[in-house]
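Q: My labmate handed me this sequence with no annotations at all. I'd like to see what the chain might look like in three dimensions before we decide whether it's worth expressing. Could you predict it?
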Amino acid sequence: MPRYFFHVTDGYSARDDEGTELPDIYTAQSQAIRTSGELLRDMGGEFWNGTEWKLEVADEHAQILLTLRFSAEEHPALTDPSRDPGSA
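A: Here is what I predict for the chain of 88 residues:
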């Protein structure tokens, strides 16, 4: 069974040196989505600072097969409704 490695970069790099045996690339895709969701949830407010975050899936030869990229920014809420071009 092939081994896939899930490397995370979110301002610093966290390399997966152990990897996970999975039956195929499609299962690795599903695992990457699931892992990304869990990591983003656990980051909480840290995720909203605009830093690009990514998860790369590599094979046993260190070849990158998949990349998921995320970033998020908080923007100040519009506090003066008279400045809203949609109101009037």
